[in-house]
Amino acid sequence: MARIAGIELPKEKKILFALPYLYGVGNTLAKKVVVQAKIDPDKRVKNLTEEEVGRLQKVVESLLVEGDLRRLVVQNIKRLEEVGTYRGLRHRRGLPVRGQRTRSNSRTKRGKRMTVGAVKKEVLMKQQAAEKTKATAAKSK
Question: Kindly report the CA angle at 45 between 44 and 51, in degrees rounded to 5?
């Protein structure tokens, strides 16, 4: 059972594929960590010895991962918002930050489609008409 940087690594996976479960460690960095810790990349997490886990922890501690990295990213975003940069404003509004178009895409950021304008007015008119017919039907009873 390998617990590195406060995260429990999956036991059945090879160490090379288990390390990216840590925030801030991707495939390339995982390969470098395994080489630096002198561990066989094909070894499974459940087969690691205590000594190998200790070496892995030592190497990962020297990197900026998990909580420290998350905190740094949040601080950077807050700084952009406070300074009032364009990127900061985009973050604050929840829109794409890196220049993507928003007219036809970015549904995940902007949310479900909402009809605006004349179509909305027509729908409103239909609803009001339906309410009037219900009211007149209730009066006639």
Answer: 115
